[in-house]
Amino acid sequence: GACVINGNVSYPQYDNIYMVGMSGAVVDSASRASDGDFRFVYDKVDEMPQMVVLEFHNPDSPSDRMFLPVALEAGQVEVRIGEYIGIWGTPLNYEIKDFFDGLQALRDEYEQNVATVDQMEAAFSAFYRTRIQANKDNVLGAYLTLAYGRELLPEDLQILMKEASE
Question: I want to staple 156 with a disulfide (CB 3.0 to 4.6 A). Which of 56, 67, 123, 129 is the partner?
Answer without folding.
Answer: 129
